[in-house]
Design brief:
5 strands; Crypto/Photolyase_N_sf; chromophore; DNA_photolyase_N; FAD; flavoprotein
Length: 431
Amino acid sequence: MSKQEISVFWFRRDLRLEDNVGLFHALKSEYPVIPLFIFDDSILDTLPKNDARVGFIHESLSRINRQLQEIESSLLVKKGKTTAVWQFLLKEFDVKEVFFNKDYEPYAIQRDSAICEFLETNKTISYSFKDQVIFEEKEVTKADGLPYTVYTPFKNKWLEKYKSMTPVQEYDTAVYFANFYKNSFAFPTLEQIGFVESLIKVKPHNLKFIANYQDIRDFPALDKTSYLSPHLRFGTVSIRKLVNWAFNKNDVFLSELIWREFFMQILFSFPKVGTQNFKSAYNGIQWRNNEEDFKRWCTGTTGYPMVDAGMRQLNETGYMHNRVRMVVASFLCKHLLIQWQWGEAYFAEKLLDYEMSANVGNWQWAAGTGCDAAPYFRVFNPEIQLKKFDEKGTYIRKWIKEFDLGYKQPMVEHAMARDRAIATYKAGILK
């Protein structure tokens, strides 16, 4: 009996049916399309069983599956090593073509290269598409073709290119929904994947505050941020729809979306930044890396209210306000002289919106070791930051319940820590 000839669309960081480039092209192919998601053991095995991000992925896939069931189709969800899953699929079906959207992180590039090679040896054609960014890889470069390593000229070039094609094309996938493969695959529970529901949840995104974003974004007590970042991370929203909308709404908000692409371009062009300093001259810094100090930072017990409130918010919710992220990152690297990789790894474990390029980029910015970084002698004063951005203490009282009962003394005195950091950096920067 001959096997069914099909195409496969492989969902990864694009968990939506609407305005999905790779899915659009898959549905235009001549074969019925099986939509696939793989829970990759290589990633899952490193995560706690109550990881909230896995729960959000499962919830997003369930939503997609319900949409597909309305048109008599369904989502095929598999768990295992990616190569093993593809071996299974090629045995079950005559897979003619595979479509997916590109991912630019080092592990994803390596994985996709291996899968494409495997598919090619089995006479299956694969196609990849740009979907999670407006401009990818080498589309925004200097005149000599080299990547930008400073944000402002990158932003200017990005805007120049965008304005020449405004609005960016969006893709109406619904026109071709009839080409989904008609079947009812069993949809696994979270427990069947090996995980349990987390008390931490991803919040719905909210764009109603964007009009005056520049006036409110630095004040954590207002709680008027978009909560978009996890949705961008997992692709439950379209970057094209978002940028086309933001372009006419708020320049500062748009700039934040461009920062995201800048950091992606840096990680793609300089993959070493995932684990190493962009500026190798900073490799000689003698970090203290005191484990007890790191533990106090992680648990939000440093004695600096803004630092502690931020870390407690992160631990309890998976979120941290952007202004507060800068303060806690600076504190770890400068006040405690703990290298940025420790903090980056902790954020990677806890943040709902963890994205390697942005996380690494922002940590290296705070540490002064990155491509477009704060100078090493800039040391945020957590007390001044508190007075400027949470003057009434509303934010810190939300997360530090015992604050008014006589809060603990700071674990390190600011002036001493600042002088120590500047001296340590100055001595350690290689000539």
